[in-house]
Amino acid sequence: MEEKIKSLRIAADIHKKVRKMVKDDIKPGAKILDICEKIETNVRLLSKYDAEKPLLQGIGFPCGFSVNNCAAHWTPVTSNEKRKIKKGDVCKIDFGVHVNGYIIDSAWTVAFDEKYNNLLNATKDATNTGLKLAGCDARISEISANIEEVINSYDIVLNNKRLKIKPVRSLCGHQIEKYKIHHKKAIPIIRMDNYHEKMKEGEFYAIETFASTGTGNVIERGNCSHYMVDYRNEKKKNFQNMNSDEKLLLTTLYKKRSTLPFCPRWLKSYGINNYSDNLNNLVKRNIINTYPPLYDVKGSYISQFEHTILIYNDKTEVLSRSDDY
């Protein structure tokens, strides 16, 4: 427990420092690639990332920068991405820091027009509600029901129409474990009375909520930018019937990321070129999992706020909380 607490607090401190470093960069006209790379570069610097010991500390997962009706899992796939922020955008910035495999997962939303205030407030309020209710032996179903109630209490006026704000039904908060961004327990953001899990001492969670002006249902679309070695596959079994390039890719990913998520944009720095066919083959064999961008209907907008918490016997520590959110 002592290593866990110390590692999480160090990672949380880095997360707070990095997001303050980029706060003023997130503005209309800025290149999204530049922001993501600045975040990732400074996570490496502040965590003292060592390429010779890549699993000790560093980036928890690719920096997500999901805009408007994209809820999650968008980051530039290549270093040629030209997309810029627009004045009417609703931007969700979601990045992770790990120390000794213990991951801080925290996200916030930026909008440049006050008309989106209620949308942002819906997830701020809902996430804070989840944080207040979290604790040792807390029933997750009760947390979920309260989160949904808060989000459903908000509405918004866009284009002279009053719209109900809805939770994004398929997205959840989640338990985190060492080198595993999604562990066994989920924290749904809709009422699920038949979910009987409780939080326990020593567990840590990402409490995150998503609110949408659209349907509240998201689908996978577009080029995948988030990948992860499947937790369930044992290394010794993975190398059967592979060609040399596939073995090199998988060996490199194990060495550099273990079961932490990665994106193709990083592979060149690992010495891997022309990866596409080999990566796709590993995906087809279920050795590597894909996490494509998730979208609600066109013209809708989604907000997100997220914090990582640690459960003690008598209290809950909101590790990623700072004066910004």
From TrEMBL:
This is Peptidase M24 domain-containing protein. Its cofactor is Mn(2+); Co(2+); Fe(2+). It catalyses: Release of N-terminal amino acids, preferentially methionine, from peptides and arylamides. GO terms for cellular component: cytoplasm. It comes from marine metagenome. Keywords: Aminopeptidase, Hydrolase, Metal-binding, Protease. One of its GO terms (molecular function) is metalloaminopeptidase activity. Residues 7-209 form the Peptidase M24 domain. It holds the Pfam family Peptidase_M24. One of its GO terms (biological process) is proteolysis.
